[in-house]
Design brief:
The protein has 145 residues and is mainly alpha-helical. The chain has 8 helices and no strands. It folds into 2 domains: 31 residues, no CATH class; 103 residues, no CATH class. Helix 4 runs parallel beside helix 7, helix 5 crosses helix 6 and helix 7 packs antiparallel against helix 8.
Length: 145
């Protein structure tokens, strides 16, 4: 079975090295503990969806967008994203959704996924499009300092 190589690597980790190399090593090892387990109890797609949900709850839409792209690349379906966004309305409230989530890059990326799938693009083509529009080159989604 081919190992999944997620898009949008954790480039923000490089910022810790700018502070202190010891801190950078601690954070890198913690990242490996969370995301690098070869036999995780929670599958990768679900981890991305949990991370996406936690990021939305913490108002971190840049992170949420990146996690959604990784979740989609890992096999998350539009139907699953539809349910997740319905949960955001339920848990965060309609007003919060309308004023914060609706105008966000996260929601734009979600709508892009839906639109591109309706055009019958392959998952790989959708991911490529997402990375071009919502990847490192987008200042609302990129993490390079």
């Amino acid at each position: 079975m081919k190992k999944f190589n997620p898009p949008l690597r954790p480039l923000a980790l490089m910022n810790y090295k700018k502070i202190d190399s010891g801190l950078s090593n601690i954070i890198a090892n913690f990242w490996k503990l969370v995301w690098g387990d070869n036999n995780p109890a929670i599958d990768q797609k679900t981890k991305y969806l949990l991370s996406l949900s936690n990021a939305v709850g913490a108002n971190r839409f840049r992170q949420a967008t990146r996690e959604m792209i990784k979740a989609y690349a890992a096999g998350t379906t539009v139907a699953e994203l539809d349910e997740l966004f319905t949960l955001f309305v339920w848990n965060q409230g309609a007003g919060y959704f309308a004023s914060e989530i609706g105008p966000s890059q996260l929601f734009a990326a979600y709508q892009s996924i839906k639109s591109l799938e309706e055009q019958k693009l392959s998952r790989e083509e959708v991911v490529k499009n997402l990375l071009e529009e919502f990847g490192e080159g987008n200042p609302d989604c990129g993490v390079r300092a």
